Amino acid sequence: MKFNGSFILKKIGETYYAVPLGSISNEIKGMIKLNDTAAFIWQKIESGAQENEIVTSVSEKFNTEKEIAQRDFDEFIMALKEAKILA
Amino acid sequence: MFKCKIADFIIEIDNKYEYSENACRDYLYAGVEKADLRISLSEEEIECEKIPEQNFSRALMEFTGIYRKFHSFLLDNNACVMHCSLISLDGKGTAFLAPSGTGKTTHTAYWKSLYKEKLVVVNGDKPIIRIINGKIIAYGTPWSGKERWQTNTSAELYNLAFIKRSERNFVEKISADEALPLLMQQLLVPTEKDKMLTFLDIVNHLLSKCNLYNIYCNMSEEAAKIACETLYS
Predict the structure, then answer these.
(1) What is d(CA B188, CA B190) in angstroms, rounded to the nearest whole number?
(2) What ipTM score was computed for the predicted complex, to two decimals?
(3) Do B206 and B137 meet the contact criterion of CB atoms below 8 Å apart?
(4) Are the Cβ atoms of A14 and B177 closer than 8 angstroms?
(5) How many whole angstroms separate alpha carbon A86 and alpha carbon A17?
(6) A56, A82, B64, B153: least CB-packed within 10 angstroms?
């Protein structure tokens, strides 16, 4: 699981944004605002972590049950795939 | 060919048309320092500046193309261009930002008539912003819009003020989150990764260091007075 290089993650002020690069910026005007969970998962993917490790980390960091962390992970991955951000 | 000094960068311009040298007359440089950047445009590159519905001369298109190449260089040097009207009062800079046609120029004109010689219009359209030792410095440039309001000077930028038309004149402070989309609309956003990282650092700097305001105004002298009382209190 890795990114295709069409976006970078950047913290501006207190908020994380996914910023489009290259030709994708002609299709997506502006930036995508991420909540804390999404930004955390993004950074984990960037570091090369796999699904199980990411879900466990989300559960620990946000003090939430593993099933909820798994659901958040699955939803975010689906959104990334729809936006064609993953390789 | 001529040399000019803009935002403390020395640029050598190999121009095909006299227009650019005339437009840069307040920035001409006769010193011996080496150029930071050399710019020349081919006829094909000039042609790329053509906008179908506008009847711009090739001379003006070359001037615009020079600006575009200069802007690319700026992002490699911790600087960028901001579309705004930038004034300085008591040595403190304020940028008035808004989409074209909202009233930046009219609002600036009221500040000029109220504060006369105390007010400097650094640039009425495209000042350059540089981050130097953590400070945000705004510079005049030859790209100054229809009114040609520009001064070859610099000012530390303290305020970003987003102009909005309103019946009632008032000013409100806004957060970085609220200011970000308004600011992004007035910046030339790069697409390459390395330039984007510098660009976003500059954006971050602007939003964290400057006071951020919405100025609601009905394009009157009173609007300028109320805005000034808040921004320069």
Answers:
(1) 6
(2) 0.82
(3) no
(4) yes
(5) 16
(6) A82
Which B residues, 191 through 230, put their C-beta within 8 Å of a C-beta on chain A? Answer: 191-193, 196-197, 200, 203-204, 207-208
Contacts of A31 in chain B (CB under 8 A): 184
Q: Are B124 and B87 in contact (CB under 8 A)?
A: no
Q: Does A28 touch chain B (CB under 8 A)?
A: no
Token pair 């960091």 in the structure block, residue? A61
The pLDDT tens digits for B153-172 are 999 999 999 999 999 999 99
Q: What is the CA radius of gyration of chain A?
A: 13
Distance (Å, rounded) from C-alpha B217 to C-alpha B230? 13
Over residues B46-67, the pLDDT tens digits come to 999 998 888 889 999 999 999 9
| A30 CB within 8 Å of a chain B CB | yes
- Pairwise CB contact (< 8 Å): B207 & A14: no
Which sign, positive or negative, has the C-alpha torsion B74, A16, B98, B91?
Answer: negative
Chain A residue numbers with beta carbons less than 8 Å from the beta carbon of B197 are: 8, 10
**Å between B194 CA and nearest CA of chain A:** 10
pTM of the complete model: 0.90
Q: Which of B189, B191, B207 has the CB atom closest to A13's CB atom? A: B207
Mean predicted confidence (pLDDT) in B40-47: 94
Geometric angle at alpha carbon B193, from B84 and B76, rounded to 5°: 60
pLDDT-based confidence at A83, cuts 50/70/90?
Answer: confident
User: Which residues of chain B are within 8 Å of residue A22 when distances are taken between CB atoms?
Assistant: 191-193
Residue of A nearest to B185 (CA): A30
